[in-house]
Model the fold of this input.
Amino acid sequence: MFQSINVGFRIRYFRQLRNWSQEKLALQAGINPAFLGHLERGLKSPTISTLEKIVSALEITFAEFFADETGISDLKKSEIQRIEYAVRDLDADSIAKIADIVQQIVELRG
Done:
């Protein structure tokens, strides 16, 4: 079943994930900052071309932008993606250690 994606929410989410201001994303994407604000608030809809500029500036794929992890709430999804973004440049050993720590926290909450 098709689920509607809130494009403005997704743009804001990925922008905030990088701790970027609207101005920074707009500059990176080559679009007007006020227009970006309208997109994020759902007041305007982007063309495919504009969305491609935004997705490219955010260094993600369309697949990542429109990903729907069924069964995971938007809040959990955004936090999981935040963790993924934070550790993506770490070496495998560091990521394994972080995974062990997370597992221990989950077990303590058990």
Observations:
- The mean pLDDT is 85.
- Residues 8 and 41 are 6 Å apart (CA to CA).
- Helices lie at 7-17, 22-29, 33-40, 48-57, 62-66, 74-87, 92-109.
